[in-house]
Amino acid sequence: MNNCTIYKTHIMIRFIKTILILFMFLGLSQIVLAQNVNPATVNVEKLSDVQIQKAVDEMNKRGLSIEEAIMMARAKGFSESQITDMRRRMDALKSGAHSNNAMVVEAGEEVSTVEVLSEKAELDDTITKKGSKIFGFQFFNSDKLTFAPSVNMPISDSYTLGIGDELVINIYGASQQIYKLQVQNNGSVYITDLGPVQVAGLTFFKAQGKIKKHLTSIYSGLRGDKPNTFVDVSAGQLKAINVNVIGEVNAPGTYTLPATASAFNALYLAGGPNEKGSFRQIDVLRDGNMISTIDVYAYLIDGKTLENVQLRDQDVIMIRPYLNRVKVAGEFKRQGWFEAKKDESLADMLRYAGGFSENAYTHRVELYRNNTRTMTFKDVAVQDFASTVLMNGDSIVAGLVIDRFENKVSIEGSVYRPGNYEMTEGLMLSQLIARAEGAKEEAYMERGVIIRKKKDYTFESLSFSLRDVLNGKTDIALMKNDKIQISSIFDMREAQTIEIVGEVQFPGTYAYAEDLKLADLIYMAGGFLEQAEVSAVEVSRILDKKEIESLTKKLSHSFQFPVDRQLKMTNEDAAFSLQSYDKVYVRRAPGYRPQAVVKVQGEVAYAGDFGLTFKGEKISDVLRRAGGVTPEAFVEGASLRRQHVMSDAEYDAKLALAKQDSTLNVEDVKRMTYQVVGIDLVKILANVGGVEDLQLKDGDQLFVPEQMQTVKVSGAVLSPVALTFKDNKSLRKYIRSSGGFAQSAKKSKVYVLYANGTAESTRGSIFGRRYPKVASGCEIIVPEKPQVDKTAQAGKWLGITSAVVSMFTAISIAIK
């Protein structure tokens, strides 16, 4: 693309941005991009349907009506024909018609709306990042808030009429007439049968009175105490005003606004003060005189809008550089950079920051001050907040309150209301226990402990008898931060449990209860399962305290009891009581066998699942129950798949390998897999019950495929392909039919994978290689040679050569 084309492309992009600005009204960034664009040069017809739809979407998003957008476009200088074209394009798009326009810059070149909007977003982000920590900056640069001027807002009585404004005069009553009059260049409106009335420069209120007075000369019904004709004067289409925003502003320039616009409207469009601009002194100048000074903080902090004056044509908004900027950090509700006026104090800044946070230490703040050469630090106490005047560059930091209590004690353990309590003067231990609503029944009465911090900040322990404190025999005066611990009798001994495992519904650990019977525990565990052996329920018991006093070979005691499935026992056995830490075993009945299922698929008479009827049932047995093979069965290709459940060690190793290898998925690692077991169904059917006739296991899958007439050749051949099987055709001929060996083929390792899952490899002999026999349905696999790093090989040989040369050199020197 040549320089001319690039220049034209740039100009066209600016035109497009301008039209998007006015019809989307996106705010600051577009205004910046559109400052030097002549709106009259924008060709609406060349905008694409996508751009028009973007405009409609943005208008809806911003809550702008078409009339408001048109008002803004007219005020910016767009012609009526351009506005008409834009309305037509919007209506056509809404009705479903498409213009098929692209945003043509040069023949064959397009600039997308997405590119334009992405540039706008980047600029917005840049501006926002620069001033994001300045208080008030987000107010003028947030898409959540808009100060876009409203074109439908009624004007105030103080509005000054000017050339181009429209007045609507409605005569009603005995006489009826409507006048739509525009203020002419001479400053007057012309009323039929009355003539010109000078209104330019008058406030709307005074102009109303003047017009009504003149109308009485042609409408006599307006006069007298009891008029029968009335007049209403209202504003129609108002002229646009030009306002200059200059100084330290994000987007300085001249803005064309509706006549109802205020100072905040102009500031919003210009993006507000930049990172160097003042938010406390924004001057509004009219005819060279200052009419108002805006303090944005007055609105942000107190919601005051008195300084937000209504603008007039050729007003100037001057944003001056800030004077004093102060950094606020730490435990304040608002942090960032704040602006301070002359003589404002730390107390004022605390109000702007929203006050202290809930965790702040409020008795003092830290003040860091720049003395042009060095920094100074000052502690400012709360009583000095109002008298400490702030300077430019000051930093104020509020710290956290420390986690230390002056009047707290705590009680924990076996009381009804454990927790923290207020330390009152003269508080005694008995009083604190009473506040906690007393000790629980299971409280350990012999001892309690008070943990107390001494003057040197170390801790000491004070013990007491809870029984004596509750009986009034003794008491202890408490101190702040004392921690009282009262244990229960259960805290003072090991948790007593009992366990049942094996063939019950809910095996597990249960709380021990005194005089618990064996039948009771089985009942609590949900009773026996069907496979339970109930004739010999075993109880294992640890050695008692006396038995463990001496070292013996005895490890535990064992008891066995028959228990009826209805949990009935003999009187003697039923009287047996369990003790804590007993372990009850309910074993599986020796004759119980879980139901085993095998799956038979493919070319059999009755494919499906079959339950194994006896231990050691063979392939031929299940195949006979399945009705045998069909005439279409390819018996030679029958295969068997068997479940393999990995051990914990195998599973953990495979899982660790998958985590290390980025090419493997951890979720694909399964504990249960299937392995192919090579079988020869031809031999099995020929010799039922023989060595080849394997015993089946639960989960086995027997598959008998249909006749297969192809041979697949894969691996290091020139054209891997599936070929038609032919009797007596050798393996080498099949490889030649697939293009022959590739250069990387390892010919000595060619092997054949048969349909039944078995494989046979190439064997070497003195007469050459003996390739496996090819059968229908098999796959000939030609492996590749391992890749060799030639650089490493060359380095290896170079090293060997150097070593040999060095050796011969040493020998020759030794001989000399």
Tell me what the structure shows.
- By secondary structure, this protein is of the alpha+beta class.
- The protein has eight domains: 3-129, no CATH class; 166-235, wza like domain (wza like fold, 2-Layer Sandwich), CATH 3.30.1950; 241-321, Outer membrane lipoprotein wza fold like (Roll); 344-398, no CATH class; 408-486, Outer membrane lipoprotein wza fold like (Roll); 497-586, Outer membrane lipoprotein wza domain like (Outer membrane lipoprotein wza fold like, Roll), CATH 3.10.560.10; 597-704, Outer membrane lipoprotein wza domain like (Outer membrane lipoprotein wza fold like), CATH 3.10.560; 710-782, Roll (Outer membrane lipoprotein wza fold like), CATH 3.10.560.
- Helices cover 25% and strands 24% of the residues.
- It is built from 20 helices and 37 strands.
- The strands form nine sheets. It has a five-stranded mixed β-sheet. Strands 12-11-15-13-14 form a five-stranded mixed β-sheet, covered by helices on one side.
- β31 and β32 form a beta hairpin.
- The protein is extended, with a radius of gyration of 49 Å.
- Residues 156-219 form the Polysaccharide export protein N-terminal domain.
- InterPro entries: Poly_export (IPR049712), Poly_export_N (IPR003715), Soluble_ligand-bd (IPR019554).
- One of its GO terms (molecular function) is polysaccharide transmembrane transporter activity.
- Pfam families: Poly_export, SLBB.
- Residues 243-291, 325-372, 408-455, 498-542, 711-752 form the Soluble ligand binding domain.
